[in-house]
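Please, structure for the following, as tokens.
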Amino acid sequence: MFLRMIRGALFRQWKKMIMIAFTIALGASLATAMLSVMLDVGDKVNQELKTYGANITVVPKEASVIDELYDVEGASTSGAYLKEDELGKIKTIFWAFNIVDYTPFIRATGTLADGSSATVVGSWFNHHMELPTGETLDTGITSLRSWWEITEGKWMDEQVSGHANEAMVGAALAEKENIHAGDTLQIKGEKNEVDFTVVGIFDAGGDEDEQIFTSLASSQRLSGLDGWIDSIEVSALTTPDNELAQKAAKDPSSLTVSQYETWYCTAYVSSICYQIQEVITDSVASPVRQVAESEGSILEKTQLLMVMITILSLIGSALGICNLVTASVMERSNEIGLLKAIGSQNNSITALVLTEIVITAVVGGMIGFFVGFGFSQIIGHTVFSSSITMRPMVIPIVALLVIAVTLLGSIPAIRMLLRLRPAEVLHGR
């Protein structure tokens, strides 16, 4: 009997039920889209910010001490170097999968043919390396400096033979020395002299425009520092800092055991820096604060925006459901009054009405979920040029929100139902 009454009510008021389902579908679709994007936006924002450079720098401990003593960022000191053969260890730390890119640097002072001096920077370009874990990695400044504009020629390519004697020259230095792609540069270093073929002129918009970039081995050969590097730039996916991360950054030993485990097993930039220092001998890893803080700030504001949109959409749905369900109860007041007159209790009548609304909500919620997931893909491809990954936890969250909004929106109608008096309703009052 109960099911027959529900079926009858759904078919008799199918127009209102469609409107209720449509209202719920709108709220569910927005909630699904915003939650899907919010839960996936951290990686998207981090990946987007990685195009603007590394967020961690690793230097020898001795060079870091000089930076702190004289407050000169990026200071270098003769004899302060890191071991090149330890570079693969960076991908063995606990947060190895969060390390998306890194490249080493070695700087040498070279003398050009006309007697002028220039900084020669050795690095990886599109380097292919075998990791200690048995995996492989393609990395280098081609991806780490993706904003560089090649004004003449092309990028160096480490995958072709002869790249060791190639170089790229900054736009400012090229203009001053009248250097063009295809020219040969004779550079004399502290230990050796090397002839380089210029394959490209680049505009970096910074100090690099006054420098010459070449392969790591070539720059090491100029200064006689085979097997040594003076810094590493690391691009890592990180979690925004909180009070625990800030406390750990100052002094990890000040943490309790549980705090230390939480910090160490969370992808804070300070945690990743600490783990890099553990595998690179006599090194100091520090975050590039401008990038790291921007990541956290942008991510928090983006997620807050998503939460606000979700809340407002659900409030709108609840108000719409409230009006529609109230109108439905008012139209059915004679039916409800008759049910009360023949002995039906308030609980059974309330259960009947709520069951009808919940069934409608489930249908609308399912439709809204799939529409919302499609909407999230549009957002992903439009904003981040990639698809949004559906997190399994979105399904139960949206289901709970739909049920909660439906029940909250039905409260005024249920209160009206409980106040109905059979005698007054049946007499048309």
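Residues 68-78 have pLDDT under 50 and may be disordered. The chain has 14 helices and 14 strands.
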